[in-house]
């Protein structure tokens, strides 16, 4: 006698077993995409600050952002490539950077706007990386996030000091 419940139990088990790795892959893919997007945005914003910034401390911070985030982006891309995960498309990010530039132009000073932006950007990035450390499923991506967090937290402290020095409101 055909028992549909008995037949569906193995199918359910198979679907559940297959669904789990796919959920892990989606979470890993989301982290890679978000982290790479934030990294590219940091590099682009840093290049803009090197060009448009007027204060020496802002330009110095921007140099650090370009160097540190370029290195982190390369490491993340290497991990992502090995796992067949895609990093964010830089053309898409250039459009987002252009929107940010328009926002920065409306500020009292570029230096102030850049410093405020860096506080907010690093707070969001730290939150993303902390979530990966606590909830991530891929050991290599978790290790990358864990290894990168201290530098991101240092960047945030520098950004808060810049915002305070240039009259920004994000440091409060």
Give a nutshell description of this structure.
The chain has 172 residues and is mainly α.
Structure explained in plain terms:
There is one protein chain. It is globular, with a radius of gyration of 21 Å. The longest helix has 49 residues, at 4-52. With 172 residues, the chain is mainly α. Helices cover 84% and strands 0% of the residues.
Could you say how many structural domains there are in total?
1
Please name the fourth-level CATH homologous superfamily.
Ferritin, core subunit, four-helix bundle
Low-confidence stretches: 2-24
Radius of gyration: 21 Å
Query: What is the H/E string?
Result: HHHHH
Largest sheet: none
The tally of helices reads 5
CATH class: Mainly Alpha
Name some characteristics of this structure.
globular, disordered N terminus, 172 residues, mainly alpha, Ferritin, 84% helix, single chain
What does the secondary structure layout of this molecule look like, with pairings?
Layout: H1 4-52, H2 56-82, H3 90-105, H4 110-135, H5 139-165
């Amino acid at each position: 006698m055909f028992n549909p419940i008995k037949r569906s139990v193995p199918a359910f088990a198979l679907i559940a077993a297959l669904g789990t790795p796919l959920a892990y892959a989606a979470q890993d893919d989301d982290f890679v995409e978000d982290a790479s997007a934030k990294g590219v945005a940091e590099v682009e914003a840093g290049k803009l600050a090197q060009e448009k910034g007027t204060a020496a401390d802002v330009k110095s911070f921007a140099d650090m952002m370009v160097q540190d985030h370029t290195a982190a982006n390369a490491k993340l891309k290497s991990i992502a490539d090995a796992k067949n995960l895609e990093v964010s498309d830089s053309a898409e990010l250039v459009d987002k950077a252009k929107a940010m530039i328009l926002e920065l132009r409306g500020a009292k000073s570029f230096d102030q706007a850049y410093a405020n932006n860096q506080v907010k950007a690093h707070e969001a990035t730290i939150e993303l990386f902390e979530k990966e450390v606590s909830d991530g499923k891929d050991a290599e991506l978790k290790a990358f996030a864990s290894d990168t967090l201290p530098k991101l937290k240092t960047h945030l402290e520098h950004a808060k000091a810049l915002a305070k020095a240039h009259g920004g409101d994000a440091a409060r």
